[in-house]
# Entry
Amino acid sequence: MNFDFETGEILLVNKPLSWTSFDVVKKVRNILRVKKIGHAGTLDPLAEGLLILCTGKFTKKIEEIQAQEKEYTGHFTVGQTTPSFDLETTVDAEKDFAYLTEAQIREIARSFEGHIDQIPPLYSAVKVNGERAYTVARRGDTAQIKAKQIHIKAFEITDIALPVVSFKVICSKGTYIRSLARDFGTALGCGAHLSKLIRTRIGPYELAQALTMDDILNIRRQIIENASHS
# Structure
């Protein structure tokens, strides 16, 4: 397998849990000695799965790749809310969910399909008056974030083992699954937060094709070995 990182490569990487997207870019840059590299679509530290990196001249493809539909799987935990809508912050409220039926949960999920207005989380990289919203949130302040229209192509409930609801979502660029957790929980009447998230696809690029960080190290070893034989 030959790579030309300067001319340009598209690397599919399986982002480890707790790593930021920038952590992955920095690590891959250092391992592969790539000067020009960027990622197409941020994943939160608590999310896992497909992160696409573009190198060299292929960094021009980043916007095109980011614009494609995304697919996610994961878990919502119902009956509990958190300020960040995920596990970055601790539970701040609990409500009974015993009244929920499987039919209700599936029907409410379907109601989110189509074009909807969604307010991004305060704990996000959205800019508010020139400042990242998460910076505002982490110092304890609040800010008004405008809703934007997104498209949920599919919101499928794949398993129900209350309080955990497993899902698959296919959605447009700019969709926050954490916000979907908040809105889904509100519609259920008991609140919810995102407790697991895996990005499985961006456009035609699938997680099954992605490299692990060990694979990246092996590519570096291969490059060194090839150079020693030339």
